[in-house]
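<backbone_tokenisation>
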Amino acid sequence: MVPSVPVSRVPRRPPRPDDPVEAVRRWYENELGWAAVPGSPVRLVTGLRFDVLEVPAEAGFPGLRHLGPASPVALHGERMRLLVAAGSAEELPGLLDWLEWGALALDLTAIGAGGSIEAPPPPDPGVVVAPDPGTRETRRGPRGAARWLRPPEPGRAVEPALPALSALGGGAVGGGVGNAPDLVRLVQTMATHCHRVKLRRACAQPLAFS
């Protein structure tokens, strides 16, 4: 009987120092302190430092006026992702009901605990002015890939800049926490424009005759 020879397992190689995917993950974890999921593409964990509101980009631009300059915003194809305070995803359905939008199907979603989003490439030192006033947009990444419209700033805590519900009165609706932007006004504006986008697209559809 011929003795069997165990198959040797090739050890998994550590990522190369010049691996661009690993460099992206390290940048988010080391420069910002954000949890990132390894892989290609790298994904950012939501529900810890921030949640994300996602809307069609054309409905999201009007909401930018309710954000501070340090509140990060990303684009992914035709979608806009706005970082908001952790826990906001759970508040969104009740907030839409309170604003009397709950009965309508809006293209406004939230990603919170247990979720993740694709990580845009870290911003370049050079930025260009985006079509929307007061925003900054990087030019990295292929068309349709995630990219920063308003990139986060290394060495600066993100939480104070994120839209949040009021902490007054046990979480009463009406204003942000401290100097944070107001989540209510942001959601109201984006819900309004999501509805307008929906109506405009419906009117653009050709009529069907039986």
In short: The chain is about 25% helix and 15% strand. The first strand starts at residue 36 and ends at 37.
